[in-house]
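Supplementary notes for students who missed Thursday's class. We covered one full example, reproduced here. Read the sequence, then the structure, then the short commentary at the end.
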Amino acid sequence: MRISLLSLTALAFVFTGCLKDEEFDNGEIQSVHSQGTQSVVEIGLTATSTNNFLPIALDLVNKDTTFNLVPVVLASDKPASQDIKVTLVKNSALIGEANTANGVNNEEAPSSVYTISNPAGANGGYVVTIPKGSNVGYLQIKINPQNFLGQAYALGFQISSIEPSGYTISTNLGGGVAAIAIKNKYDGVYEIDENSTLVDIVSPSLSSVPGDPYPYEFHLITVSGNKNVMFIPGLGYGHLIAGNSYYGEYAPIFEFNLTTNKIIGVTNYYGDPSPTRGRSAELDPTGINQVNADKSVDVKYIMKQGGSLRTTITEHWKYVGPRP
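Structure (token representation):
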């Protein structure tokens, strides 16, 4: 089974300059595409979980760049019947929580390296408008990516108020963190070789067989200078398994040695262990665990569940090219 790179990705909204609802309609910029709920407003940074931590990796250019940083979503299958004005305020504490949950070490971006384009709101916040007839509005930011080179910057935001009255701030998705980095040298599009193997000792029917799930393409997205997370176009942060499915709450983050190009660690994007399924990721030291001269990768890693080994994964990745 091959996942086409023509599929929409959860990052598609980052580089659009206008307000669109395709990403919401596809369930790609919020964690839960609610049906029939008219009043709940949320920050929708991630599509497949309540993690609400989004690593954004930019190409290195020395010019001002404006993009949509944080989507604010009316969690409903119906669009807004009126303009909804949502005030976001910075919440630095969310960055520390995201660092702990995702095994990263981001710091709050200093105000000197970015400008928020939205109008000012109460309590030092910024107003995001979800327009009538839409489900989503955006907090926009202007930066020069040159200022982010070699840095691990992030911004955390919390919904503080909504106008008019009658709308509820989401309990689980009222806040979120966007981490902004320059693409590291491992960032890119890869294809997992068809001879790779996945062995699930708890549910053998999910283990790989010829043609399922390998081969498939995925993205390695920069999380920091030497860490990248696995992202499946059209799905989100995750890992495919046999039977046209994937593991919930499991997406490996790979840590590289920048000098030797060895893979020195693997953690779970959703936490180690993840909050509801108790899943964690680890590197298997018996593997090759190396980035090769042709930019291909050989890696062996595992998934634990409830502290016990569940799945062993041995993969060879072919480098396809840079991410779009």
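Commentary. Confidence is low (pLDDT under 50) at residues 1-36. Helices lie at 22-25, 93-102. If anything here is unclear, bring it to office hours.
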